[in-house]
Amino acid sequence: MSPFCRLRCRCRKEGSDWLTMMHSRIRLARNLLRPDGVIFISIDDCESSSLRHICDEVFGENNLVANIVWQHSVQPKGYTQLFSVHHNHILCYSRSDEYVVQPLERTEKDNKNYSNPDDDPRGPWRAGDVRNALYRPNLIFPIVTPSEKTIDPPENGWRWKKATIKKKIQDGEIVFSTDESRIIRKIYLEDQSGRAPETIWFSEDVGNTRSAASELKGLFNGVAPFDTAKPLKLIDRMFQVAGLQPDDLCLDFFAGSCSTAHARLASMSPGPFIMIQMPEPIDNTKPHGKAAQNLGMATIADIGKERIRRAGNEIQNETGLHGSPLDVGFRVLKVDSSNLEDVYYRPDVLSQDLLSENVDNIREGRSSEDLLFQILLDWGVDLSLPISRQDIDGKTVFFVDGAEKHMALAACFDLDIDEAFVKQLAEYEPLRVVFRDAGFTSDSVKINVEQIFAQKSPNTEVKVL
User: Fold this and answer.
1) In the chain, what percentage of residues exceed pLDDT 70?
2) Would you tell me how many other CB atoms lie within 10 Å of the CB of residue 52?
3) SS (H, E, C) the chain
4) Which pTM does this prediction carry?
């Protein structure tokens, strides 16, 4: 999993609360990362120092990959007595040394310094440095040219020992200048599979806040319902550096308008993602808040969900033109209390009559879907697996990850479950099956459920909620 975090800076008076909140989330993020995972955290100058201290503590200073500077704005702010701030920081940390920075794709701009003035059969090349950056006395020696001239060594010495330089001259990687006053190292374009990412990301390459607003306007009928969205090209650059693959999970702890989900769907390797966003009320006193309100959205989470829907439809229509329809569906899960009732009685007030009045232990108002997803969480079943609903003998049954035999889970939360129905369900041989505790016609049916499955589907794990 390669989580991407977007963090928003709080003012100083909230600093202590902000640090406490961030510390717990950074620790959680680290625990969720794979050994080769990487996290990107965007922050402005106000709390960048504090955030780096937290990350150094949680991830370790040696796992700081880079402190990237992103040019988020190109327009001067107009306050001549202050600096016009045009950047944010993006802290990049890895879980361990298993993460390897992935190169960026080369562009024509990256290749402009390569040429082939001597018609080298290996194609375009550029001159590389032959000097050592450190003082290496064992690499300080003269080089004799074909015409027996002498080339003096650099102050710190050459980059290679004598034997290596001799081999490179024989192979044509090192040549002499026309006047034989220096050696030239050839770096061939054909050997360059990519380019190393820099620590400064310019807006012309990865976008800025203005281009992010334009992307939102393109989805929301010319208005931007969110004021701090990140441009898709910025997030796509993070995907490239992370080496995100189609099967990798992308997690955004502060989803906002869900730019990350949009970028994931639109990327060259669309794949699974999890967006997390509190349902913070929209400030309808500001232009973006009014725009969101006019579109029927009351919270930031509403904006994110609607953006994924609209972006998904747009991308699906585009890919469909090429015969490659894309799955853009997603599920929305909300944190809530347990679906089970909290019932507490002192031993001296319990009676048989009281027990009979509390047969159903499910909270009022909870749907079958609520119960199903609690079971998925309890059993650790992937929440993204396909779910189908079927009618069997007048009862609603949910099948998870298939509707034939050996599906991951079968669940029925209806009432009046009898042995005949249990036997029918056992014929599907699910890996797991769950019923509602109060759903059986009698106690004997509930007792016999495990025996029925033991006979017809011995590998099925049975649970009663």
Assistant:
1) 91
2) 18
3) CCCEEECCCCCHHHHHHHHHHHHHHHHHHHHHCCCCCEEEEEECHHHHHHHHHHHHHHHCHHHEEEEEEEECCCCCCCCCCCCCCCEEEEEEEECCCCCCCCCECCCCCCCCCCECCCCCCCCCEEEECCECCCCCHHHCCCEECCCCCEECCCCCCECCCHHHHHHHHHHCCEEECCCCCCEEEEEEHHHCCCECCCCEECHHHHCCHHHHHHHHHHHCCCCCCCCCCCCHHHHHHHHHHHCCCCCCCEEECCCCCCHHHHHHHHCCCCCCEEECCCCCECCCCCHHHHHHHHCCCCEHHHHHHHHHHHHHHHHHHHHHCCCCCCCCCCCCCCCCCCCECCCCCCHHHCCHHHHHCCCCCECCCCCHHHHHHHHHHHHCCCCCCCEEEEEECCEEEEEECCCCCCCCEEEECCCCECHHHHHHHHCCCCCEEEECHHHECCHHHHHHHHHHHHHHCCCCEEEEC
4) 0.80
What is the predicted pLDDT for the residue at 316?
85
CB 432 within 8 A of CB 463: yes
Provide the 10 A C-beta neighbour count for residue 90.
25
* Residues whose CB is less than 8 angstroms from the CB of residue 53 and which lie 6 or more positions away in sequence, other chains included: none
Q: Which residues pair with 187 in a beta bridge?
A: 126
Strands 125-128 and 183-188, sheet pairing: antiparallel
Which strands form 395-400's sheet, in the order they lie side by side? 387-392, 395-400, 409-412, 432-435, 461-464
Nearest residue to 118 via CA among 172, 193, 181:
172
**What is the pLDDT, as a whole number, of residue 11?**
44
pLDDT average, residue stretch 167-182? 94
Angle among Cα 394, 396, 398 to the nearest 5 degrees reads: 150
Of 232, 237, 206, the C-alpha closest to 219 is 232
Task: Tell me which amino acid residue 346 is.
Answer: R
Quick one: pLDDT at residue 79? Answer: 66
Predicted confidence band at 343 (pLDDT cuts at 50, 70, 90)?
Answer: low
Residue 445: other Cβ atoms inside 10 A = 19
Residues 6+ apart with CB under 8 A from 236: 206, 263, 266, 267
User: Is residue 403 over pLDDT 80?
Assistant: no
> Position 196: which residue type?
A
How many residues are listed for the chain in this entry? 465
**Residues facing 344 on adjacent strands:** none
Structure confidence at residue 91 (pLDDT): 97
Rounded to 10 degrees, the C-alpha dihedral 407/413/419/422 comes to 0
Give the whole-angstrom CA distance, residue 91 versus residue 39. 8
